[in-house]
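Hi all, posting the design record for the shared folder.

TITLE: backbone redesign
STEP: 1 of 1
STRUCTURE INPUT:
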């Protein structure tokens, strides 16, 4: 089965015109999950926040799956007053999430 992975990096669309062959939908779903994470990893060094999404189309052009990763890097604790490479100062730590 051929599936097409249209990639959205923020507002930028990269349309897949070639597609990839997978044995079934589950294999395409796994491929989309890996692709969205790998794409976010590539973007992360140059950006401290962003969104990457993959819209998976079937051979008839129907969107059958959407995978999405939102990432953000914040300096939470910086005791020595260092600034990050982007010049951002540390933020106050968030309250911990308590689970029962």
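Okay, here is what came back for every position:
SEQUENCE:
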């Amino acid at each position: 089965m051929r599936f097409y992975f249209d990639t959205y990096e923020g507002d930028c669309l990269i349309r897949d015109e070639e597609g990839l062959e997978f044995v079934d939908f589950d294999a395409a779903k796994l491929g989309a999950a890996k692709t969205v994470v790998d794409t976010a990893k590539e973007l992360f060094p140059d950006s401290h926040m962003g969104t990457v999404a993959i819209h998976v189309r079937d051979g008839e052009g129907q969107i059958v799956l959407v995978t999405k990763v939102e990432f953000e890097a914040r300096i939470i604790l910086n005791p020595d007053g260092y600034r990050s490479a982007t010049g951002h100062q540390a933020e106050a730590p968030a309250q911990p999430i308590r689970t029962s």
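COMMENT: The beta strands are 2-9, 12-14, 20-21, 49-57, 63-72.
Let me know if anyone wants the other runs.
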